[in-house]
């Protein structure tokens, strides 16, 4: 009879010992759960920061490529302006005559306050059409200059 009593007591002992293990493990489980929640929140924050930084780097890369293209275009333009062929072609054509650098200020028809004035009447162009083929005589409003 003693044996039957031990068999009946054994499941109760197993239940009590399991309950003691759960009570002992509960603080560890609670702490691990709290730490897991904190890590999830930190993970979400890190993902958000990563997304913002990814967007910023994409904008900066686009700006970099835009500036790189602009730099290339400006370099081409500066090389064009510095090349000897461009320098020769940019000089005005004087048709074989030396360029006039300084106009004598004491020439007739020059007024330092007004600038060049109309030449004397005998030297005016008598052609009634300008260089574009339009008639410049408009009655009372005729102005040869």
Automatic annotation (TrEMBL):
GO cellular component entries? nucleus
Q: Which UniProt keywords apply?
A: Nucleus, Signal, Transcription, Transcription regulation
One molecular function GO term is: DNA binding
The record's InterPro entries line, in alphabetical order, gives:
bZIP_transcription_regulators
Record has Membrane as a keyword:
no
Q: Which residues form the signal peptide?
A: 1-20
BP term (GO), one: positive regulation of DNA-templated transcription
List the protein's name: Basic leucine zipper 34-like
Q: Which organism is it from?
A: Gossypium hirsutum
Gene name, per UniProt, is: LOC107933767
């Amino acid at each position: 009879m003693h044996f039957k009593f031990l068999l009946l007591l054994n499941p109760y002992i197993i239940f009590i010992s399991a309950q003691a293990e759960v009570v002992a493990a509960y603080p560890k489980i609670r702490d691990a759960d709290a730490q897991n929640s904190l890590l999830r929140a930190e993970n979400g924050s890190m993902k958000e920061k990563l997304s913002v930084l990814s967007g910023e780097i994409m904008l900066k890369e686009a700006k970099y490529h835009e500036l790189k293209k602009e730099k290339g275009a400006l370099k081409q333009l500066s090389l064009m302006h510095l090349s000897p062929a461009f320098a020769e072609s940019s000089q005005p054509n004087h048709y074989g005559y030396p360029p006039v650098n300084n106009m004598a200020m004491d020439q007739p028809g020059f007024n330092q306050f007004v600038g060049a004035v109309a030449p004397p009447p005998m030297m005016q162009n008598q052609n009634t059409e300008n260089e574009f083929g339009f008639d410049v005589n408009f009655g009372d409003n005729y102005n040869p200059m």
